[in-house]
Amino acid sequence: MRLFLLLISFLVPAAASAAAGNADIHAIAQKSAELLHVERVDEVRKTQIEGLFEVRSGRNIFYSDAQGKYFVLGGSLIDTAAGKNLTSERKEQINRIDWSELPLDKAILSGDRGAKLKLAIFTDPDCPYCRKLEKELVDLKGVAVYTFLYPLEKLHPNARAKSEAIWCSKEQHSMLQKVMLERFVPEAARCKTPIDDIQTLAQRLNINGTPTFIAGDGRMASGVKSAADMKTWLENGMQKD
């Protein structure tokens, strides 16, 4: 926050020139690549704050003054009047994926299967945050949930065996809940699983942690949301469409 306020103090004297269209987009892009050590700069565009520019590199967002002299890293742009985190909303836009690309036949389907609201989750049965999210999902109504088993073996050595056992169970979702919510240790699996394919998919989508979830409109987020917050997040996407 101090860094953000410091940047704003530098921008105030330059606001008039920035408003007059004197922003050096080329300099911002060039200095961003040099100073921030990014391989490429995909986009530079104005923000709602006069004199402050968004610099996008892949899925990462930075902020710069009009000449590329000062940068804000790791900050969020907040619209206090609307009560919105503009940086988070922007990241949702650039991280959006095509839902049709998800191999839903390799996911465990649960929830209200015919619901218009759809949610895909990449989960690890030994991930503590995934367990918290799974507990919230019990109370999530009116949503079709597709769970992709994505064990992070470097962090949780036993997660793959549990994931395989869940997939090979006759009642996949019941076993998923039993393993995650009751800490049940299932017997070894005896069937072919799609876990390798899911890991390849996760890498292609730049999903490096769990739980990561994707709304039916392609927005991506991570962490734990309450059932109520998750429902609101999904509904907000439908309203925008």
UniProtKB/TrEMBL annotation:
Entry's Gene Ontology cellular component terms: periplasmic space
Pfam annotation, one family: Thioredoxin_2
Record carries keyword Isomerase: yes
Gene3D superfamilies assigned to the protein according to its UniProt record, in alphabetical order: Disulphide bond isomerase, DsbC/G, N-terminal (3.10.450.70), Glutaredoxin (3.40.30.10)
First and last residue of the signal peptide: 1-18
Domain Disulphide bond isomerase DsbC/G N-terminal: 19-87
Primary localisation category: periplasm
Keywords noted in UniProt: Disulfide bond, Isomerase, Periplasm, Redox-active center, Signal
SUPFAM superfamilies to which the protein is assigned, alphabetical: DsbC/DsbG N-terminal domain-like, Thioredoxin-like
Family per similarity comment: Belongs to the thioredoxin family. DsbC subfamily.
Described function: Required for disulfide bond formation in some periplasmic proteins. Acts by transferring its disulfide bond to other proteins and is reduced in the process.
Name this polypeptide is given: Thiol:disulfide interchange protein
